[in-house]
Write a structure and sequence with these properties.
Blueprint lengths: L3 E4 L2 E3 L5 E7 L8 E7 L6 E6 L5 E3 L7 E6 L4 E6 L8 E8 L12 E2 L3 E5 L2
Parallel strand pairs: 2-11
Antiparallel strand pairs: 1-3, 3-8, 4-5, 4-9, 5-6, 7-8, 9-10, 9-11
């Protein structure tokens, strides 16, 4: 079992930055692919980014060049650095873990955090 706890969400102005963190329990964290999904009010959940155990990464086109996913296996933590934020980035962001290699479909993720709200507004 893996338990995931997100932090770092909040209110930020357009063009600003936030860094989300996700602390994971369990001794096998380094063997999981980690990722972030988001869900805006009234919309489907959406893939944001994923990172393999070896730090290979993949991103949704909508966040490429603005968001960076990283992980620290010694701290059992994954991060999402979000820069140049736009109002359309407003959503609940979920940290996810999978035994598969860098999946982008939500069905392929085995574990989900509770989510953290990110609001981009002036």
């Amino acid at each position: 079992q893996v338990q995931l706890v997100e932090s770092g969400g909040g209110l930020v102005q357009p063009g600003g930055s936030l860094r989300l963190s996700c602390a994971a329990s369990g001794r096998t964290f380094s063997s999981y692919a980690m990722g972030w999904f988001r869900q805006a009010s009234g919309k489907e959940r959406e893939f944001v980014a994923t990172i393999s155990w070896s730090a290979n990464t993949d991103y949704a086109d909508s966040v490429k060049g603005r968001f960076t996913i990283s992980r620290d296996n010694a701290k059992n933590t994954v991060y999402l650095q979000m820069n140049s934020l736009k109002p359309e980035d407003t959503a609940v962001y979920y940290c996810v873990a999978s035994i598969k290699y860098m999946p982008t479909m939500y069905q392929e993720y085995n574990f989900w955090g509770q989510g953290t709200q990110v609001t981009v507004s002036s």
